[in-house]
Design goal:
CATH superfamily of the largest domain in chain A: Alpha-helical ferredoxin
Number of strands of chain B: 8
Low-confidence stretches of chain A: none
CATH topology of the largest domain in chain A: Fumarate Reductase Iron-sulfur Protein, Chain B, domain 2
Strand content of chain B: 5-15%
Shape of chain B: globular
Helix content of chain B: 40-55%
CATH class of the largest domain in chain B: Alpha Beta
Largest sheet of chain A: none
Distance between the termini of chain B: 34 Å
Distance between the termini of chain A: 39 Å
Oligomer: heterodimer
CATH architecture of the largest domain in chain A: Orthogonal Bundle
Number of helices of chain B: 13
CATH class of the largest domain in chain A: Mainly Alpha
Low-confidence stretches of chain B: none
Number of helices of chain A: 12
Strand order of the largest sheet of chain B: 2-1-3-4
Structural class of chain B: alpha/beta
Order of helices and strands of chain B: EHEHHEHHEHEHHEHEHHEHH
Shape of chain A: globular
Order of helices and strands of chain A: HHHHHHHHHHHH
Number of strands of chain A: 0
Largest sheet of chain B: 4 strands, parallel
Number of domains of chain A: 2
Strand content of chain A: under 5%
Helix content of chain A: 55-70%
Radius of gyration of chain B: 19 Å
Mean pLDDT of chain A: 90
CATH architecture of the largest domain in chain B: 3-Layer(aba) Sandwich
Chain lengths: 194, 287
């Protein structure tokens, strides 16, 4: 018997990763669909949260990591609060983003991943976020330099966007923290600890 | 009785786009005898970006702040719902000894994960019996909007009922106003998507504001800078997209409590919002 186009690589590989990282038991999902019904962003996702759960159960890594779902999930945790099988589905979604980041897979929502990366780069550099810098950098790196400009004058006249970067004295500690995290994430022997 | 001294973590936005939240928080706490000691040299909690990218980073960054508060020996009061959520999630995850050990190694400091993290809403609610009401917010109908991160998931944040929280409504009532019954108290506003998928933010925020408006609310009260920004900053764009009029002021609950304690609109930075609350406040005799 064939499974159509479905060619599960080691069937449990994806599920094992998700379960280890999120601490959630994916096989307990019995596909009731309450997560998709309550998800505020389901209407823009290519796969609903229920379908993502099924994809993990079936080992469909490419489908799960390539979905727009994992990026459009805004972590409101409505699904997690309502799941009758008590699965924290939002945690499952974030673990798929970690895997997508680690495997450098092509994200379905490039701008969202870029936004998060830019955000983290700024924390690493300055210790805190400065929204003006975040907006400018995100626009430049995303090659949409004039996006979101309409609100700028209003924000500036209200004094809501400080122009100078934030000052953190011990920013070197933060940089070290980022470096140590990267080191651990690259070392295969320590990856299990996470 | 809770202690009256708290370590205070404002978070990045309270120094910029949400500075009215910080200013009104300090005024109200000062009046109620609650001492806030800002964490020295605090850094960003990583917000949605750290936990969208790296598991370890998403707990290491908040752990740094939890450790600093632990050293101060006071519970940690947090105003921003996003920071609150990240700090709570971290404290919850670090009940796992192996993870705590790893984080200790990363921080290079001794940390026992003993900090109690409290949201400011709870701090003020618990102090509200002794509130010296100078200007009761009479005849003001408020749609108390809690959003996602304050209330979910219950086992992590331990805050209030997940589907129908009450604590902000009770605090607003103690200020003399009326909290309306409505469906969107804990609905999502679109969170961190305004720069990347504005369409989602406009749709989700619009349905929240529409119902508040239909039910006769004079304003929406929030406890999260991200919610405030989404509901207020993009309101004109929602009106243009969905071709209707909202004109619904979106205020921090601390600004409303501050008004009841007789601080002036100027002191509370009520002039910093995109949807100007002054006409409504004047109409109600509150400004």
């Amino acid at each position: 018997m064939t499974l159509g186009s479905i060619t599960p690589s080691p069937l449990s590989e994806l599920r094992t990763f998700v379960e280890n990282q999120s601490g959630q038991k994916v096989l307990q999902c019995y596909q009731c669909g309450k997560c998709s019904a309550g998800c505020p962003a389901a209407y823009v996702m290519d796969l609903g949260p229920r379908q993502i759960m099924r994809a993990i159960q079936l080992g469909l890594k490419k489908e799960a990591l390539g979905s727009s779902t994992i990026w459009l999930c805004v972590f409101c945790q409505t699904c997690s609060a309502r799941c009758p099988a008590e699965i924290d589905i939002a945690r499952v979604m974030e673990s798929l983003r970690w895997l997508a980041a680690a495997e450098k897979s092509q994200p379905a929502e490039k701008d969202i991943q870029l936004f998060h990366r830019t955000f983290l780069n700024l924390i690493q550099r300055f210790g805190r976020i400065q929204e003006l810098g975040l907006g400018v950098l995100y626009n430049l790196l995303g090659r949409h330099p004039f996006a979101n400009m309409a609100l700028l004058p209003g924000m500036l006249t209200r004094g809501k966007l400080p122009v100078l970067p934030p000052r953190v004295k011990r920013v070197s500690e933060v940089r070290k923290l980022f470096a140590k995290v990267k080191g651990i994430e690259k070392s295969p022997s320590r990856r299990e600890e996470r | 009785m809770r202690p009256h001294t708290y370590a205070y973590y404002p978070g990045c936005t309270l120094h910029s786009t949400a500075k009215e939240y910080d200013v009104s928080t300090r005024l109200v706490c000062g009046k109620l005898g609650i001492k806030l000691q800002e964490l020295e040299d605090w850094t960003c909690c990583g917000a949605s970006s750290a936990h969208s990218t790296s598991h370890l980073l998403s707990i290491a960054l908040p752990a740094r702040e939890l450790q600093a508060a632990e050293e101060m020996g006071s519970p940690l009061a947090v105003a921003c719902a996003m920071c609150f959520s990240r700090l709570k999630h971290t404290a919850y995850e670090l009940t796992d000894k192996a993870k705590l050990g790893l984080v200790n190694e990363l921080l290079g400091k001794e940390f026992h994960n003993a900090t109690e993290v409290v949201h400011l809403l709870k701090v003020l609610y618990e102090a509200s019996d002794a509130m010296p009401l100078r200007r009761p917010l009479k005849e003001l109908k408020v749609a108390c909007y809690y959003g996602c991160l304050l209330v979910r998931p219950q086992e992590v944040v331990d805050f209030d009922d997940v589907e129908n929280p009450q604590i902000m409504d009770r605090l607003i009532e103690k200020s003399g106003a009326e909290g309306i019954e409505w469906d969107f108290k804990t609905a999502c506003c679109g969170a961190s998507l305004p720069l990347t998928r504005r369409d989602v933010v406009l749709k989700l925020s619009h349905r929240i504001l529409s119902q508040a408006k239909q039910l006769g609310a004079d304003c929406v009260a929030v406890a999260c800078p991200m919610c405030q920004s989404n509901l207020d900053t993009y309101q004109k764009e929602m009106e243009a997209t969905y071709k209707d009029k909202l004109e619904l002021p979106v205020l921090y609950f601390t600004q409303l409590v501050g008004l009841a304690l007789d601080f002036s609109p100027k002191q509370l930075l009520l002039d910093k919002h995109f949807t100007d609350p002054m006409p409504m406040l004047k109409d109600k005799g509150l400004a």
